[in-house]
Amino acid sequence: MFTSWGKTALLLGLALGSGAQDVITSDTAFYGQSPPVYPSPEGTGLGDWASAYTKAKAFVAQLSDDEKVNLTAGVSSNTGCSGFIQAIDRLGFPGICMSDAGNGLRGTDYVNGWSSGISVGASWNRELALSRATYMGQEYRKKGVNMILGPVVGPLGRVALGGRNWEGYSTDPYLSGILVSETVKGLQSQNVATSVKHYIANEQETNRNPTTDSDGNAVQSVSSNIDDKTMHELYLWPFQDAVLAGATNMMCSYQRINNSYGCQNSKTLNGLLKTELGFQGYVVTDWGAQHAGIAGANAGLDVVMPRSSTWNSNLTDAIANGTMEASRLDDMVTRLIATWYYLDQDTVFPHPGVGMPSSASSPHEAVIATSKEAKPVLLQSAIESHVLVKNTDNTLPLKSPKLISVFGYDAYAPLKYDLSNNFNFGLDRERSDLYQNGTLYVGGGSGQNSPAYIDAPIDAIKRRAYEDGSSVLWDFTSEAPTVDYTSDVCLVFINAYATEGYDREALSDTYSDAIVTNVANNCGNTIVVVHNAGVRTAEAWVDHTNVTGIIYAHLPGQDTGRALVELLYGDSNPSGRLPYTVAKRPSDYGALLEPSQPEGQYQYFPQSDFSEGVYIDYRAFDKDDDIEPQYPFGYGLSYTTFDYSDLKISKTSNASSAAYPASASILPGGNPRLFDELVTVTASVKNTGTVDGQEVAQLYIGIPNGPVRQLRGFDKVSIKAGSSASVTFSLTRRDLSTWDTNAQEWLLQRGTYNFYVGRNSRDLPLEGTLVY
Ligand code: BGC
């Protein structure tokens, strides 16, 4: 399992014991073994955290030991918050309410159901990500939720069948990084703290938590074994962007990283997060992810949720007997309270949990978080969730159809939508690869949400028929429905469900495939709409001549039907692009199709070797250029066409081109010199069609000794028919660098860099080079 140098590193690590940080260097890579990094760095108020720390320190100085300990773990409350930190009344601290999740507030009424992370990824739209988060943040604030348990950038989507890939944005760290950054800014602009999760390398649901096998043997969580370079260039990248954007909290993950649990891993918490990235906020466990006592605190964990069975008064005992420094406890509490001050929650925030009743039937006031102002953003987020990938002979937009026939189990709203199941409306946690109880507008688990309403596709189609005087027929239940011969168009709605707690069984299912094929065999204009919580392959019908249109709709939230109808009838022009690669067949994902399983000598200590390094998704398909995708990363059609010209690549005149960034005081996000702009790229894009549209111009670069292409810029622009727009991409030092494991620095290599600009990762008409 481990390479010989990995074993050597292990022996070395054991011989040196903890505290040997200065001797163990990461040029030994420590694959499969996590090096010790101690002591835990104290938050000092770097950057714009200074005044929050001054206030927090003054606050903490007034606390008794018991009060400090109480702040380090959650308590039960009479609210429906997912987690609660108790109040300290004598100091006017009202407590902290934390609740799920990144697609809308879960567990209460009068909130919106927003498009999911994967839909934000599909929008490739920075401004939209920002406004979506801003309006979502307003809802959290009105409800007295101090911290949203999101957004998600882990999983990144390494495993195609991963059950939670839909909660994050994209398999690409650059795209995820930009979108998480906008999301953090939007949410925190409303004084709501963000808990960016799941830190880190939480790439599968299988064995995410320790279990007991059928013989009663303990089985530990899976270990994500990652080398230092891959960690920096792929998995840490979007978390770094989140810290740079001001993220106040990180949720450490369930699984192990290099065989050390995520919430007691001193390398990832003390080392990467709190030292290298200069993180000033606090680390909270995923719910129930604490697997150690004092060791977790010393490794950099600050707060345990939903409660701790091991900390409590043991923390003060540990200080008394010397196993933990008193300064560590102070730091844990200071980081928490500093976050509260950083977001001005001491002055402008409603009472924690005010809009979070413990159950639907308990007496509670209606705290209405939905607003008129949010509606256009809610709808636009739903629209840009959709990616049109097939449109034979421009069958879309529809041209005054007289008869629309609608098929499939995914077209209608759930038959029951009430306040049962502790406000988790509609979607349960049952594992299934399709969801037949109503249209799929969100995935399952803690990321699901409870919208004000669900506007299903059939509802919106009928409204349109009313306006147009057209007719609609439907059959939601038959696998081989009867098709009216005169149908102008047949719309088939299927889905690909995924939920927290399970990885998916397959990338497609035969039942849905049969519905599509049966309709297509009898309808010359069949358009398939897939609500997909992750990759959905379509090998059974993608090339069927009667399948004239395919839309990957993802998870649009409550306005799913309205958004779709706007697109179908051309009131909006599709502008979503795939935030992942759709393969021709599942086996094209190779070893990254399925999660790792406990096996062989590691059956009790499951191992997942990230031995592919940075070569996941399109980076793997492009390697040696031998796997042709069905639809490449970044792909998506519009009702118009765009031409590219005029590529210009220029170095910023006064920027340093030294191999390593100049040393500078660390700020949240890391060495600020990493974010100096080194290169600007511009190009011209012309709308050559007859309707207005939005194009996502994409920049990929080939960094020496790296993948053929990596996304390093995108610019979404609205262009009127016949007009041109200029697109601009600016590249930072980090964008051009690779992680040098010996120097422990980002290295700007000497050599030739290839630049490509165009429509998607495989259609890049403009090319150029730059030499360093
Ligand atoms: C999930 C987290 C979630 C937490 C609280 C956990 O099971 O992994 O994403 O925020 O529960 O509900």
From TrEMBL:
Gene Ontology biological process: cellulose catabolic process
Catalytic activity: Hydrolysis of terminal, non-reducing beta-D-glucosyl residues with release of beta-D-glucose
Signal peptide region: 1-20
GO molecular function, one term: beta-glucosidase activity
Localisation: Secreted
Keyword Protein biosynthesis attached: no
GO cellular component: extracellular region
Pathway participation: Glycan metabolism; cellulose degradation
Top-rank taxon: Eukaryota
Record domain Fibronectin type III-like: where: 695-761
Enzyme class at the top of the EC tree: hydrolase
Keywords associated with the record: Carbohydrate metabolism, Cellulose degradation, Glycoprotein, Glycosidase, Hydrolase, Polysaccharide degradation, Secreted, Signal
EC number(s) reported in the record: 3.2.1.21
Pfam families: Fn3-like, Glyco_hydro_3, Glyco_hydro_3_C
Cited InterPro entries: Cellulose_deg_GH3, Fn3-like, GH, Glyco_hydro_3_C, Glyco_hydro_3_C_sf, Glyco_hydro_3_N, Glyco_hydro_3_N_sf, Ig-like_fold
Family assignment from sequence similarity: Belongs to the glycosyl hydrolase 3 family.
Function: Beta-glucosidases are one of a number of cellulolytic enzymes involved in the degradation of cellulosic biomass. Catalyzes the last step releasing glucose from the inhibitory cellobiose.
Annotated protein name in UniProt: Probable beta-glucosidase M
Organism annotation: Aspergillus mulundensis
